[in-house]
Amino acid sequence: MKKYLCKVKLCSLNIFKHLRPTLLLFLPQVAINIYVFLNKIMLGSMSTVVEAGFFDSSDKIIRMCLTLVTALTTVMMPRVASMFAKGDEEKVNEYLKIGFGIATLFAFPIFFGIEGVASKFIPWFFGEKFIKVIPVISIEAFAIMPISFSQVLGIQYLVPIGKTNQYSKSIIFGAIINFLINIPLIYFYSAVGTAVATVISESCIAILELFFASNNVKISLLFKEFWKPFLSSFIMYLVVKFLNGSLKVSFFYLFVEVFAGICIYTLLLIVLRYEIIRVFVKKLLKK
Fold this sequence. Notes:
This protein is 80% helix and 0% strand.
């Protein structure tokens, strides 16, 4: 190993030049964690611990479902940074469009899937005492789309192209909005109010990031094929909702509903010739 390693003088290292950009990335993550925990703390103090438990159960399912979208945007981040460093803006926009397409590809069926099975899944998974989680998760599920969009716009685009400051502003703005509207909403609607506050604050973050990105990106191109996964997911939802009302509550029948939903959704996207599906198929054929 000696031939590959060399002695570095500590005085030659300029550690502090990385401090500001690191803090700019650190602060929004702190803001995210604070307002996620603040939701539960405020709910527990202003309402009841039981209501906080209802929201926590809903929030865990939503966040778990979003891990797939989060992972995909993180994977795309270094590619965007590399293309931006080379000055290839066309490629940067292409990757952003792909990232946006992947986000909608997964976010819509996750949202409609939750809406379709929540009424039977919640009491089966958590128990009858958690029946009040159903309206909470049905509302909080609306946050899936703005969270997915903000992940793509923030982590995959704004951060790699050096607009970390704008990304931080979006997150902090959303955290402030969340805190302010939580107070009246928790007072009147408890856990449901916190779910509404989450949807509004996440939407504010996504809208602000869209505004910041609009200076360099043609936003209309991102939403060009938006209707295809939406329509496919909605039709999937109708079928899943019908099955959910017809079949008994069990793990097997829940699996049948999910499997049927995935098959219908995939088939409809192929029929509608969704661009991201075509990109995936081309990549597979090349291999």
